[in-house]
Amino acid sequence: MAVLRTLGTIVVAAATTWFTMWALGLALPFLAEPAVLLVVLVVVAVQALIAGILASYDLGRVGHWLILVVDHTWSLLNTVFGGIVGNLIYPFVGRPSRADSAGRTWIVYMPRSTSGFGTDVLQTVGIVNLGGAGQHERMHLLQSRAFGPTYLPLFAVFYVVTALLAILFAPLGALLKAAHRRDTWYLRPPAKSAVQGFFGWIYYATPFELWAYASGNP
């Protein structure tokens, strides 16, 4: 059963990825180049193998079949990004967790340490998570599936906007701090933000993060 589930996950992921790349290649021919297609298919197949072993998708449920297809069509960009970044970086700080992945439609790496990246700061890229399930991280998973190919570009735009606002505020913040009207020269995020310091507000004030924090705990 486990072997069939894993094979089924790989076949569906690879087939829908190939179809998506072929369709996109009609408008953007470079995506249909054999080298590009091969790299994407290898990334997807390896990630599907991991997902199959961890039983991330319950192929006995119609909803999970649909999510698997969405992850490799509409949300393919996010899935490939997570497959490259998450599955290359997270193994250095965590271990794949079947208990936290099975039937949850994502791949979870649980941190090896009791503090730091993966414990104090959780992260989700595509369908790959570091640190385990919480409503906040599950919301990022939902966001990536809902916004599909626009999710990562929008996140980048949001970061540029909040960074510019933080930089523009800095001179005024320095004056206010000098006048003892503020205790920091930079915009400071609330205590619940996983990231503090100058970059903390830039990270926290993005719409996707505000939405995720409003949805529940990390």
From TrEMBL:
<keyword id="KW-1133">Transmembrane helix</keyword>
<feature type="transmembrane region" description="Helical">
    <location>
        <begin position="151"/>
        <end position="176"/>
    </location>
</feature>
<feature type="transmembrane region" description="Helical">
    <location>
        <begin position="34"/>
        <end position="54"/>
    </location>
</feature>
<keyword id="KW-0472">Membrane</keyword>
<feature type="transmembrane region" description="Helical">
    <location>
        <begin position="7"/>
        <end position="28"/>
    </location>
</feature>
<keyword id="KW-0812">Transmembrane</keyword>
<feature type="transmembrane region" description="Helical">
    <location>
        <begin position="66"/>
        <end position="90"/>
    </location>
</feature>
<protein>
    <submittedName>
        <fullName>Uncharacterized protein</fullName>
    </submittedName>
</protein>
